[in-house]
Amino acid sequence: MDSLQIYANNSDEEDLSHQPSTPSADSSPPRLIPSKSAAPKVDDTMLALTAAEARQAQSRPIDPTQHVVAFNPTYDQLWAPTYGPAHPYAKDGIAQGMRNHKLGFVEDASIDSFVFDEQYNTFHKYGYAADPSGSNYIGDLDALQKNDAISVYNIPQNEQKKRKIEREKDEDEVDPTEIDNPATDVWLMKNKRSPWAGKKEGVQTELTEEQKKYAEEYAKKKEEKGHQGEKGEHVVDKTTFHGKEERDYQGRSWIAPPKDAKATNDHCYIPKRLVHTWSGHTKGVSAIRFFPKYGHLILSAGMDTKVKIWDVFNSGKCMRTYMGHSKAVRDISFCNDGTKFLTAGYDKNIKYWDTETGQVISTFSTGKIPYVVKLNPDEDKQNILLAGMSDKKIVQWDINTGQITQEYDQHLGAVNTITFVDNNRRFVTSSDDKSLRVWEFGIPVVIKYISEPHMHSMPSISLHPNTNWLAAQSLDNQILIYSTRERFQLNKKKRFAGHIVAGYACQVNFSPDGRFVMSGDGEGKCWFWDWKSCKVFRTLKCHEGVCIGCEWHPLEQSKVATCGWDGLIKYWD
């Protein structure tokens, strides 16, 4: 406590000693005059902000979209890259005016490809390369000094001489016995003809008897296989007539249409009930076709290799069976008058049959599977056959001569359909390559190619009765409509959907008056849509399994035939 007291006294004394001495009477009083300025008071906040903004403008890059620059920019600012996030309207953040390439703005490089390769390889070998923006080098500078800044392409003279000496030295060290032995690499290097001749060539010796025999057998087998592949599988053609008599009491053929067969009215109606079932195929039915114009007979192609023709108007029985394929029949097509028809089978054969007698008139094959066959619909060109093949070609034959007269080879997948348009001057083909191609008949050059990213494969196409539209069954479960006019445009207003066809080549078809669109589906139903409104009109449960084909009767306006993979053909009214 005593020490604290002493400390307090000391501090009091110090304070007193620091106080200024009071002025004496003789000394003058202090003059405290406030400073004054004649300049008016100015608020300089805005001035500071403007100066800061100007400085900022000098340093920031110029927006490429602005049209006016309010100051003199520097060279660096003008050529600075575009910064910031992508512009919401200008693609890739670059204004349209600045683009000279679909991916943005491209400048020509001022470096030759040889120079670039030289520097690239030098960097990977030595670790240094010339900097393209200036005269200095980048990379390993120690290696640069050590190698006197040489590149891989300019090896100094002494290095070349050294390599030559080493090569000669290696050659001297080679064992002379190895040079004479053709099995060694040394002999190979010595006797090679070119940089690419790297095969070891043994001394040619005579074949033994056993080897000769094997070679002959192999050649023979290969030749046989080649012929078989060329022509398709050969089957004896047979036919069976199942009717009572081939000619009636008046001498008329069984295929002759009834005299009174004509259209009852012009108005088509949707069928409601099943009126008849034709069963005779032991496996699924892949296609059906009514007899042209009259529809008094219906032809069916079966997966049991048989083609059958059935009576529609009278007995409803099978009239004739045509057996000429060794595998399932894929497609069938009548000629204009119905007296002959074509069949295409998975045995790689196309056969041209006489409907009445069941005789095969001619057989065609390229050694590939035909997926679709069609005769030219013109009356004067009924001898021209078109077939879409599995090897991406459409092959054209002259039936009279049996010669291939044209090949249309542009598709990138198997050809699925052939549809004639524009008074048969053109035809449209679809393929597994998900495209449509339009051809001028007889000219193997595509005149219109339709392929969009959203398109799917179209395994069935049908022509509207007014010939202005094509209905294409798309494998994304919808039917698309294309115009047959010059541009073959997709009609975006017409789209028929609701059915499930993904994976199946279900046939699409029109009613004869064009008011209804119909199609089978993968669940055995037959769907009917109204052409004008695109609405589903009716669905019929037709088959167990897939309903693959559907045909509207050409004369009886409310009758429809369907076929399915259950082996049945059904007739609806």
Automatic annotation (TrEMBL):
Residues 169-178 have a biased composition (Acidic residues). Pfam families: WD40. SMART domains: WD40. Residues 1-10, 18-27 have a biased composition (Polar residues). InterPro entries: PRPF17 (IPR032847), WD40/YVTN_repeat-like_dom_sf (IPR015943), WD40_PAC1 (IPR020472), WD40_repeat_CS (IPR019775), WD40_repeat_dom_sf (IPR036322), WD40_rpt (IPR001680). CDD domains: WD40 (cd00200). The keyword Repeat applies. The keyword Transmembrane does not apply. Residues 1-39, 159-180 are annotated as: Disordered. It comes from the Eukaryota. Keywords: Repeat, WD repeat. WD repeats lie at residues 278-312, 322-363, 408-440, 540-573. PANTHER family: PRE-MRNA-PROCESSING FACTOR 17. This is Pre-mRNA-processing factor 17-like. It comes from Gossypium arboreum.
